[in-house]
Amino acid sequence: MHAWLCTNPTGVENLQWQELPTPQPAKGEVLVRIHAASLNFPDLLIVQNKYQMKPDLPFVPGSEYAGVVEAVGEGVTHLQVGQRVAALNGTGGFGTHTTVAAKLCMPLPDAFSYEDAAAFIMTYATSHHALIDRGALQAGETVLVLGAAGGVGTAAIQIAKAQGAKVIAAASSDDKCALCKEIGADETINYQTQDLREALKALTNGKGPDVVYDPVGGDYTEAAFRSIAWRGRYLVIGFAAGPIPALPLNLPLLKGASIVGVFWGAFSQKEPAANAAMLQELATWYAEGKIKPVMDGTMPMRDLHKAYERMGQRAVRGKLVLVNA
């Protein structure tokens, strides 16, 4: 097998494409031949030693991938050799093969392409858990999605619309706003050229959004929270902008609003039955055409450095997927 190996997590430039022994699955594991793997923001952080999960060195990055089971370990009965699966394991995806716990694999129906499957679990599970479980989003409510043209942002737009909500998508360019409109956003805000608070006031008749979905953090957090509706829910997804914002605690008091943390990875481990039910609902929505990953494009697995460069420039719209020939 071949894989991108991280021996020193000081940046993308230290990743090397190497030939490695093909592993054999241990008890409870399967060996997956990888067809496609998506690039997520944590995949950038983890090779810079900035992510909360710090794997032992050396490791192969790539948190999310899809492929075919080539071997099964002892005790695995629900998956078979030749079965198509997707998995989110945190590491291992940027290569030709990997082993993964069978319980982390999502069986794929034939209609689910490898590219879509590789771009599915992290963004859609995060957004579903955020909006519906943690945010208790109801039909008819208004959602503000920050960073709306990215992977989790585009997933959040589709899930909110499937739930019957009104979506205001905020992004950093007119081109990105146009993409958000194409996938269902009702209104858009270009927060590079528009004042976020004034635009929200105009679009909600002064009420503000009921739910704010924020994977960005940084400078827009306080402005968005100051605009939130009474009894609003502010969903803390991540900090793609870099700085972790600090909110004055008088704001949730005055707004009667909640700051809600969203950590889907911990949810999937602590509440596996609820997580499995959620993934099944998402797979059903995919089959019904309600949701579909927005693709920035595909690149050969060997072009990982170029893919990281594109993500680092914040040029990715939706998900960028690496494929093995």
From TrEMBL:
Signal peptide: none annotated. One of its GO terms (molecular function) is oxidoreductase activity. CDD domains: QOR1 (cd08241). PANTHER family: QUINONE OXIDOREDUCTASE-LIKE PROTEIN 2, SHORT-CHAIN DEHYDROGENASE/REDUCTASE. Transmembrane segments: none annotated. PROSITE patterns: QOR_ZETA_CRYSTAL. It comes from Lampropedia aestuarii. This is NADPH:quinone oxidoreductase family protein.
